[in-house]
Write a structure and sequence with these properties.
- With 271 residues, the chain is an alpha/beta fold.
- Helices cover 48% and strands 14% of the residues.
- It has a single domain (7-268), classed as NAD(P)-binding Rossmann-like Domain (Rossmann fold, 3-Layer(aba) Sandwich).
- The protein contains 9 helices and 9 strands.
- The mean pLDDT is 90.
Length: 271
């Protein structure tokens, strides 16, 4: 397939959802670049170019965007995919860890958006897709900080979308459910303290979370959803992708009284 003229930048493209999406889009003619904090760690990686970018560092973001522009002369599509997980009782999660995950999951996408917007505005066109999570629509026990980072990005996407409308730049969010990636191994886990009042319930919930990831669906399903969204002339504000049960849970949250939905979550997490 002949390459299209559309250049795609995917943050966090070295593994997981980002890598699956990048490979899928490349196979369909897009010119794709991924990012990694340290591309030198992937010496045998040859599926698509990896740019050095740490979304927590302003200078790193600007340098990666400048390198891409030097190579291709334009950026048509930005997919903000880089993210990290965090688990733990809210009370016992070190605040430094809270700030760190917000740096990656929320402030990071905002930095990359700011870096590409002047160029998209000059092109009078562009599309930005922020990868969030179904967890961003609900406060999940022992995943409250992660839910908060993704929920914040969902709301910021709504506002940004309206602010960018007059420039011909579109923005949407895509919230995946559970997929088989390496996010569990890369999560920050609040330590299970010996004297913690949460020790038993947190331990059980953590095992359940890891089970959900290990039994997750193929990341290619997310890639196919991204491709479908990119074909839309007028994309919606929010999209979701996941198992029928995961998406049904989101539907239930919209229609059920808060206390009834809370009871469902308590039963699910055996709390």
């Amino acid at each position: 397939m002949e390459p299209t003229k559309e250049v795609v930048l995917i943050t966090g493209g070295s593994s997981g959802l980002g890598k699956a999406t990048a490979e899928y889009l490349k196979a369909r003619g897009y010119t794709v670049y991924g990012t990694a904090r340290n591309p030198q760690k992937y010496q045998d990686f040859d599926q698509f170019p990896l740019l050095a970018m740490d979304v927590r560092e302003e200078a790193s973001v600007k340098a990666a965007v400048a390198e891409l522009l030097q190579r291709e002369g334009r950026i048509d599509i930005l997919i903000n995919n880089a993210g990290v997980g965090i688990t733990g009782p809210l009370e016992e999660t070190p605040h430094e860890a809270v700030l760190d995950v917000f740096e990656t999951n929320f402030h990071g996408p905002l930095r990359v958006i700011r870096a590409v917007l002047p160029h998209m505005r000059a092109q009078k066109t562009g599309f930005i897709l922020n990868i969030t999570s179904l967890a961003g629509f609900m406060g999940l026990p022992f995943r409250g900080i992660y839910s908060a980072t993704k929920g914040a990005l969902e709301l910021a996407s709504e506002a940004y979308r309206m602010e960018l409308r007059e420039f011909g730049i579109r923005m949407s969010s895509l919230a995946p459910g559970g997929y088989a990636t390496n996010i569990a191994s890369g999560r920050f886990h609040s330590p299970l303290l010996e004297d913690s009042p949460y020790r038993a319930v947190y331990g059980n919930s953590l095992a359940l979370m890891d089970q959900h990831v290990s039994e997750g669906k193929d990341p290619k399903e997310v890639a196919r959803k991204v491709y479908t969204i990119l074909q839309k002339k007028h994309p919606r504000v929010h999209y979701t992708v996941g198992s029928p049960l995961q998406k049904f849970s989101l539907f239930l949250k919209k229609i059920l009284p808060d206390k009834i939905y809370e009871r469902l979550l308590l039963n699910h997490y055996k709390l």
